[in-house]
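The instructor's notes for this session suggest beginning with a concrete chain rather than abstract definitions. Hand out the sequence below and ask the class to guess, before any prediction is shown, which regions might be ordered.
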Amino acid sequence: MRSESDLSIKERVIEIVQQQLAKRGLYGPIEPDDDLSEAGMSSLDLVNLMLRVEAEYELQIPESDMTGENFRSVSRIGHLVTTLLPGA
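After discussion, reveal the predicted structure:
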């Protein structure tokens, strides 16, 4: 397992979000605090994002943490990942 700073986690999650949006033909900058639903992500996109985050960071997100609030923005996803990584 790799150790990453909050900044690099957010940067990687932004890349994943942009890839997800590009599949739907949506392009543009994503800021850490942007609301991902407003940016164009559907509920199915958010489910796929959860799965990609789990795979990227080799972790399992507890069902209790699979909430819209935790996946509302890159910042919130980054915070969740940081708390779930070993040593948090």
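Then share the key points. Residues 6-84 form a domain with the Non-ribosomal Peptide Synthetase Peptidyl Carrier Protein; Chain A fold (CATH 1.10.1200.10). The chain has a mean pLDDT of 90.
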